[in-house]
Amino acid sequence: MSASRQRPKLTQIATLLGVSAATVSNALAGKGRVSEEMAERIRAKAAELGYMPSQAGRALRTGRSQVLGLVLPNIANPLFPQIAQAIEHAASDAGYGVLIADSRGDVATQTRAIEQLQDRGVDGIVIVPRRGTRIADIGSPVAVIDSPSTPGNTVSADHWQGGRLVAQHLLDLGHRNLLLIGNNPVSNVQNDRIGGMKSVLTGNAQFSVLWIEDHEARHGKGCILGLKEKAREGVTAFAAVSDLHALRALTELQGAGVRVPDDASVTGFDDLTWSTAITPALTTVHMDMATIAEQAVAALTALIEAAPPVSQKREHVGHLTTQTGKPVATATQKSVPMELILRQTSGPVPSKPTEIPPAGEKQ
Amino acid sequence: MSASRQRPKLTQIATLLGVSAATVSNALAGKGRVSEEMAERIRAKAAELGYMPSQAGRALRTGRSQVLGLVLPNIANPLFPQIAQAIEHAASDAGYGVLIADSRGDVATQTRAIEQLQDRGVDGIVIVPRRGTRIADIGSPVAVIDSPSTPGNTVSADHWQGGRLVAQHLLDLGHRNLLLIGNNPVSNVQNDRIGGMKSVLTGNAQFSVLWIEDHEARHGKGCILGLKEKAREGVTAFAAVSDLHALRALTELQGAGVRVPDDASVTGFDDLTWSTAITPALTTVHMDMATIAEQAVAALTALIEAAPPVSQKREHVGHLTTQTGKPVATATQKSVPMELILRQTSGPVPSKPTEIPPAGEKQ
DNA sequence: CTGAAAGCGCTTACAG
DNA sequence: CTGAAAGCGCTTACAG
């Protein structure tokens, strides 16, 4: 009944007001070349008609789509919601839309995904890269979200510091025998987190590291991690590099009759949605994705504005541009502090040696 | 070093070959108005230069952006990765990009999100709507992913049938006393799932329903669900309408010394990523998001093609269009069967009455 | 079978 | 302060 009248266009409001399209455009863009009085009338009329400029027209003319591409290693990744949400907001605040792409596992698909995004005319790309990605080969402005150990333009959480946080927390609770649980020793993120933990675990605390992929390579996918035995051997704290692994540890321990946090503590990383939905709720480390996303988008828009739009006649070629037209940008390296979230899976080290039930009739 | 030459444009390949832009355009579009020989040369040259048409130019001319909007109630939803991934692929296969938007909780934000998408010129919208959304008010082609109980153009999993699947499974295992766990009684999806379960639980099986929101309203957010007591009262199977609630049940039971699946069975819904990462792995019901997404995108592209592009001069106004230019579309109502995934949290009902440890020193 | 022309909706120098 | 004109890259009737 209401709504959905035909979308008004610039020229309509121009003729309605008896002015030129140029004036309307300038007024709406706030380019100041218009009398305040005229500008006001134009803005009023535009608002009245619910005018929104056509992206297509503007994009064609300016060479800018006002759209960013978001490339992720694997959309199915449980961290994806947090990242996508944060990027979407940051981008939206900066006047950009977000087009998604999925690397679907391999670097080849990632390359294709990036190309597709470019074919669709994105102004820049936010990427959480797969191992082995050559960022430099991407012909668009790029912001990388990874770990501070990644070279190049990067924004990320300070995973190392996050590691220190958990380890210190466990130390403070009296734990002196810990198992650090990771998945893959070649991940920068995981290595940083573990490295941070290790850096705190000096002196009289002992620890070892369990890499799940290695373990599964030997015992089969989805196998038991043998945490109950570890507990019986005296480990009182299990510190995983991700909530996913913490969940695995928690359920394995609980299923084996090891009580958390009474008999052993478990901690994770990432603060995934379900981490409060479990009993006991998971102690974890939270990354401030909102800030990370803002910084990534800010870095990206800076790059975009520095680079001349591709499809524009370059009247006077800038002094500070390389032959490819890419500005000589200094690499951004930002890292955002992580925050420890105290919940119920971590508690004081048991005073008396833990009594772990023996055998255990697992099916 | 290589790559990133200036993007070639249509006219470049035209002049290079000494033909008109029109011919190049026709050849590339396969419009047949070009000799096969010429077409071949043109295609070859285009491939050689890595030509990709400018979306902006094409969009401006055709009135079509080849982009779909994806609107979700809450990007942070754990189901989002599955949905986004599936939609992205289906859309990509159909030649569309996907722009994301976040409803961030309320209907008002959802409305704004939809408007933003429209301002960015999307050709259509895939929406997983919030309660109370008036789909009819959206001025663009829309495909809705929800439950079959939702009126209008809808594609969805057959949640009711999924419910039957789990309930029958538990019945087959000998369970006769079940607790169905839901969150919110006003959700169509959850009601369908529970309804399906109930429809199977006739005869000598007894059950009751626990709505978590109600329970939390009385006992506080994040409270204990009291499942151990239920178990002691004779419940042997806990069937949740989502993996999230199943996880909550599982950890609560495990933490209270109730062994799963030996003492009690637990089942979920959705097959979230972590459902194999827990011990024991979760028995759940999987939705075929790939198929759902394909159907949603297919329905959407059909609508898009039926509707005349907004910004086009409508030479001869079609016979079968309403005054708003929207085609009189018959409502699509498709539902995709769900699949039971047997894993370790469900097992035969215990032969002897379960011995649940009493007290329980929860912290 | 091929080309010349118009135009999609905007913005940006340039004149006045 | 305002307007006329050109042009972003494409596609689509229409002529030839």
Which descriptors would you attach to this protein?
homodimer; 363 residues; alpha/beta; 434 Repressor (Amino-terminal Domain); Rossmann fold; six-stranded parallel β-sheet; four-stranded parallel β-sheet; 12 helices; DNA-binding
Please give a quick description of this structure.
Two copies of one chain form a homodimer. Chain A has helices at 10-17, 21-29, 36-49, 55-62, 80-93, 107-119, 159-172, 188-200, 212-219, 227-232, 243-255, 289-306, and strands spanning 67-72, 97-102, 124-127, 142-145, 154-157, 177-182, 206-211, 237-240, 265-267, 284-287, 333-336, 338-341.
Q: H/E element string of chain A?
A: HHHHEHEHEEEHEHEHHEHEEHEE
Quote the average pLDDT of chain A.
Answer: 86
Largest interface: A-B, 72 and 72 residues
CATH third-tier fold name of the largest domain in chain A:
Rossmann fold
What is the CATH first-level class name of the largest domain in chain A?
Alpha Beta
What is the CATH architecture assignment of the largest domain in chain A? 3-Layer(aba) Sandwich
* Gyration radius from CA atoms of chain A, angstroms: 27 Å
Number of helices of chain A: 12
The CATH homologous superfamily of the largest domain in chain A is termed Response regulator
**Proportion of β residues of chain A?**
15-25%
Question: Main sheet of chain A: which strands, in order across?
Answer: 2-1-3-4-5-11
The level of helicity of chain A is: 25-40%
Low-confidence stretches of chain A: 311-328
The end-to-end distance of chain A, rounded to whole angstroms, is 63 Å
How many structural domains are formed by the residues of chain A?
Answer: 2
Sum up the overall morphology of chain A in one term: elongated
The largest sheet of chain A is: 6 strands, parallel
Multimeric status of the protein: homodimer
Find the count of extended strands of chain A (DSSP E, 2+ residues): 12
Q: What structural class is derived from the secondary structure elements of chain A? A: alpha/beta
